[in-house]
Design goal:
Elements (H helix, E strand, L loop, with lengths): L1 E9 L3 H8 L13 E6 L3 E6 L3 E11 L3 E8 L5 E10 L2 E10 L3 H28 L1
Antiparallel strand pairs: 1-7, 2-3, 3-4, 4-5, 5-6, 6-7
Length: 133
Amino acid sequence: MKIDKKIEDIKATDVKVYGMMTDFRALSSRVPPQAEDWKADENHCEFTIKGMMAMKVDIAEKKEFNKVVYQLSNDKGMPATIVVDINGKGETCDVALHAEMQVPVFMEFMLKGAVNQVLEKVGGSFKTAIEQA
């Protein structure tokens, strides 16, 4: 299952966005209440999504100021990859999120809407967090 989201006109440079995206500790103060038992270091975080699943996220690749790749694993056996493309435009930038999740075909229809909403919410929260940092 693949889902793409754009976050446009972030009022921050690509350097600032990249810095926040490549250190999970920077996000610790912005964790939504649905993410319980948050633990993070620079390249790894883990948490439980209340009532759903336990997640582990690792930074798998970094391309300075342009790209970050996250590998996600969970207790449901549905791994995922999220690629973040950063497009700097001077004092602002755009970010494109590309999520790919391995789910059984019969579950794709049920999960696609939920994952889409999560990416939308995370994207909006991220934009707010980076602009306020």
